[in-house]
Write the structure tokens for this entry.
Amino acid sequence: MQLRHIRYLLAVAEHGNFTRAAEALHVSQPTLSQQIIQLEESLGVALLDRSGRTVKVTDAGSVYMEHARKALRELASGRRAILDVQDLGRGELRLATTPTFTAYLVGPLLAAFNARYPGITVRVKEMSLDTIAAAVAADEVDLGIAFSISRPADDIECEPLLVERLSVVVGNSHRFASHRNGITPEMLATERIGVLSPDFATRGHVDDYLRSQSVAPAIAVEANTISALIEVVRRSSVVTILPEAIGKQHADLRNIAISPPLKSRTAALLRRRGAYQSAAALAFAELCKHTCECG
């Protein structure tokens, strides 16, 4: 059995078709079929059901593929370990983060990291919380920055970094800007509000809060990026609710306290439990903890 047998099996399972899998692998279909047959013969079981129009994985194949994927992840970790340079003169960091943290936390962290370790290439992916956890578990990324998971999977470590507080945010010319003592939820009822799209975790928190306070302001804008929402708020009378740290970063925005306040959330660093951590990943994790503790 060789690694190519495993990769060929995974490709057929993914495409559900020998022809498409062969095209993706850049091999001939007869070669691919013969390699899968050799793998099945060596294991003594049928891994694929070829009886229908679509090739399906058998029960035995599903069990085998689960272990095969884990083996490939460990081998990939081994390759990175060999190439890892402990003096951080070169290397790579794969980082996943939610869009909310990109807006105010990840940017400064990456700027500081790049200044310290200019030879490290950082590959950043914005994902949802669920997708980040899955990517970390699958070893598709080294680290994730996301909201803390109350019950993380056994293979995920979740280390708290900082507490994020949500605030009402308005432009400097908005009438709320002069309310030094803050506002009440009832005062939002007659406002035109800007919100993030439902795929943001922040949107769910905002909706839950407004529902709990029995207020339903008119939605004037629904944006799928934080930058777009900020531009609308700073140039108009639209009100929004965003992390307090975002409001503090913009001179033409004001954070307005609201009572009762929205529930705070915890930002956390996610990593795969027991997995190899490159020098770059360890250095970035230390920078996160130091920066957030000092912040």
